[in-house]
Amino acid sequence: MQLLLLLLLLLHLQIHTTHSAHIPEYKALLSAKSLIDDTQSALSSWNATTNHCTWRGVTCSDTTHHHVTSLDLSGLNLCGTLSPDLAHLRFLWDLTVASNQLSGPIPPQLSSLSALRYLNLSNNIFNGTFPTQLASLKNLQVLDLYNNNMTGELPLTVVEMPNLRHLHLGGNYFTGQIPTQYGQWQFIEYLAVSGNELNGTIPAEIGNLTTLRELYLGYFNAYEGGIPAEIGNLSELVRIDVANCGLTGEIPPEIGKLQKLHTLFLQVNALSGSLMVELGNLASLKSMDLSNNMLTGEIPSSFAQLKNMTLLNLFRNKLHGAIPDFIGDLPALEVLQLWDNNFTGSIPQGLGKNGRLKTLDLSSNNIASTILSSISKCQNLEVLNLSNNSLTGEIPENIGNCSSLFRFRVNDNKLTGPIPREIGNLENLDALDLGSNQISGNVPAEILGCRNLAYLDLHSNLITGNFPGKLRRLVLLQFVDFSDNLIEGTWPLHVLPRHIVFFSISRNNLSGEIPSLFCNLNLINYLDFSHNHFRMIPVCLGNMSNLINLDLRNNNLHGTIPKFVKCSNLRSLKLASNQLEGPLPRSLVNCKKLEILEFANNKINDTFPHWLVNLPKLQVLSLRSNNFHGSIGNHKTKFSFPNLRIIDLSHNMFHGHLPSNFFKYLTAMMNVNMDKGGLQYMGDGYYYDSVTICIKGNDINVEKIQTLLTIIDFSNNSFKGEIPKVIGKLGSLKGLNFSHNNLMGHIPISFGILTNLEWLDLSSNKLTGNIPVQLTDLTSLAILNLSKNHLVGLIPQGKQFNTFTNASYSENLGLCGFPMTKTCGNDEGQHPPLSSTIQEDDFEFANGFNWKVVLLGYGCGFMFGLSMGYLVFLSEKSKWLANSVYGKRHNKVRRSKKNARGRII
């Protein structure tokens, strides 16, 4: 009996303690409010003087004696943390705080909310690992943690929630593999783990989720292998999104069993093989995106059955063959993107009659036909991109029927004829790109009807007449490119709208003065008047504070260079090939972002501009063919050009010694591995820079300057003394030209370290001594000119030296051996050893220089290319060489956009 009484007493104490632990619901809510930073007073109604059931976001139920059953605080811009006192809302079945800025860990105390059915914490910044205690929420049906900062491995304990219908763990930082146990839910309909940092394989057990309707596994994950064939068991599946996650292999044909599927997204992977015929069995399919893969073959005929297809994206693959005619007959098709493949043939005529089509992009293929003459029922067409093909004929007049068109690109084709006047009917057009064709005639006045036009590109055509000054009425114009046409005359009185950002009229026949009215275009960033016949530079150009690129090359500009005062954004200034006189304006030191200065081929009279060291980003300096004079400095002069990659002082009147200090701090020319990240070009991501420089003895206009192109050209001056040994430290150097000077002494053996050197010209000097055998280690060397010096001894043999002709050594009376006809005597007949060992004492290098690292070359394939380039050079086919190595003209690029991390679904 005493024991029974004791047990009853303990039970009473436990019940009392438990009861006292529960605080009133309104106090639990006020406690939650105290941890929240409510900057917008969204919770102002939460106060103790009113009934908590009337508070914002709070819902009470009559059936539970006015207990709180739902708390929805979504989208209120709340900060702070989530209070563990919410666990006292014992009757709560819906807790939603989505789309705020709440942080901190998820309170494990929420596990006591046994009635909870719906927990949505998405779009916040919660962190930490998933609380294992939440596995006790056996009635939970929806768990949404999308777009937070959760870490650790994907939680395994969620499989202990048997009633889950909706699980979203995407947009976090979960790691590890998808657990095989995720295949054991009985009722789940929605599963998303995309946008994490998962790896491993996609488990075949996913195929056990026979109630699943939506599956999201992609974006930022990096799986091994491909899609498991068991996915064909998911008969209820309506949406698959496994994009951008490193999938390989072929698309499993079992996907063809999913008769309810309406969305298939597998883009941005490495899927290979042909398009599966079985995909054509998916009669319910509405959206299919297989773009950015490595799929091959043709579009299968089974795709003709996809009558409900609205979006078909197959761009950036390796598909070929003709675009089948049935594609034009898919009645529901709204978006068709097949660009960047190898399609041939013609454009299906049915596409021009499809009244539902909104986007048609067939660019960057090999289509050789005319533009659709059938375009007549295209009132809904918004984007038409047929660029980079082999289209012929004229632009059809009925393009004017496409009243919804806002983007029309047919650039880089073989189109002829005039610009149709009917384009003026396209009032919604904001981008018109007809560049790089053979379009002729004047720009029609009717183009003023395109009142929303912001982008107009007509470059590289046969456009004639005067520049259409009436374009000023197109007040939204931001981009205008009329370069490389046949436009002539003087500049019209009125210029362009004030919103212009990019303007190019280069390579035409315009003359007169550059109008000062351009200085009123406050937003302009890129201004190109090059290759015309303009005479004067407006002084006000130096006050255009937003200007980034100013190109006035190859005109007939006279007078002095204006002062540049408001030039804080100027990155490229090109005034080469004019008749400019006087000194360089010292005001250029105001242009702290300058990377390219090109003043070659003028009449500038000045000493070397030492003050340019104040431009820390300077990469290209070309002063060639002017009247510069004096010495460039002495051993005490302080030089600092850490980013300089190309310097051309040739064809001037410089004299004196070559100061070692100048070359000592050319850091950008020393770092051999600085371009390991891949081929890059100088520019700002929107406009690639160009420059005219002497490469291997030929003046070449390099339209896109590779960042690995490093050149020093001091030729045709009066420099004297020895060549500084420190030049051997410039390991990235591609070209070195000291020819036609008065240099004396020996060729530094340190040049044997310049393993990236492709051309070396030391001709027409007074150099003496032997040719260093170490130069045979220059395996990239394609051009060598040591002629007209006083060199003696045996010409080294082996590697690239076996390819050089007699012209490389002519007029050196003391040289002998191959390839010269003069043989060496008995004393000289013994070939020196071909070892390239260089003693540490041979040159003044800093400690830590690693010879073995520098000897890393381009490899056999590159050497074969250099050898072929050398033969072509000897055949005087330098233009072909320039185009092959440095590419064709097309220096404008468009910005790309990236989705925010974790917000893809």
From TrEMBL:
The chain crosses the membrane at residues 855-874. Its main location: membrane. Keywords: Cell membrane, Glycoprotein, Leucine-rich repeat, Membrane, Receptor, Repeat, Signal, Transmembrane, Transmembrane helix. Residues 101-217, 273-393 form the Disease resistance R13L4/SHOC-2-like LRR domain. Residues 25-61 form the Leucine-rich repeat-containing N-terminal plant-type domain. It holds the Pfam family LRR_8. It is found in: Cell membrane. SUPFAM superfamilies: L domain-like, RNI-like. Residues 1-20 form the signal peptide. GO terms for cellular component: plasma membrane. PANTHER family: LEUCINE-RICH REPEAT RECEPTOR-LIKE SERINE_THREONINE-PROTEIN KINASE BAM1, UNNAMED PRODUCT. This is Leucine-rich repeat-containing N-terminal plant-type domain-containing protein.
